Amino acid sequence: MAKPGSLFRAKPEGKRVAPPVTVEAKTPKRGKHLISGLYEAPTYKQFTTLAAELGLQRCDLLREALNDLFVKHGKQPIA
Questions:
Q1: Taking phi first (over 0 means left), then psi (-120 to 50 degrees means alpha), and beta for anything else, what does residue 19 get?
Q2: Rounded to whole angstroms, how far apart are CA atoms 79 and 63?
Q3: What's the confidence (pLDDT) of residue 4?
C-alpha cells in the first residue's frame, strides 16, 4: 500500500469506486434471420406511418407483406 499522503494511492480513501461496466453484444434470436434493405426516405416514412396507422409493429407489417408476396407467387405464407 502507498505511504500516507502519497499521490499514488491504490484507491481513494472514503470514495467508492464503481465496478467496470460490461457491455454484452446482442446476439440474434435463435432460428431468426434479418431481412433488410435500403430505401429512400419517403418509402421509409410511408411504411412507418402505415404501421402506426394500423397499430402494428413494422416487423409485423413486413411479415404481412412477405406472406402476401409468397401467396402471389404460389408459395406457402410461412413468415
A1: beta
A2: 6
A3: 63
pTM: 0.61
* 3 CB-contact burial (10 Å; exposed 0-12 / middle 13-18 / buried 19+): exposed
In this prediction, residues 26-49 reach a mean pLDDT of 90
Residue 57 identity (one-letter amino acid) = Q
CA dihedral over 4, 9, 15, 16, signed as positive or negative:
negative
Q: Is 27 helix (H, G, I), strand (E, B) or coil?
A: coil
Would you mind telling me the total number of residues written for the chain in this entry? 79
DSSP annotation string for 30-44: TT---------HHHH
**Which pairs from 52-57 meet CB under 8 Å and 24+ separation?**
none
**d(C-alpha 76, C-alpha 79), whole Å:** 9
Please state, in angstroms and rounded to a whole number, the distance separating the CA atoms of residues 64 and 72: 12
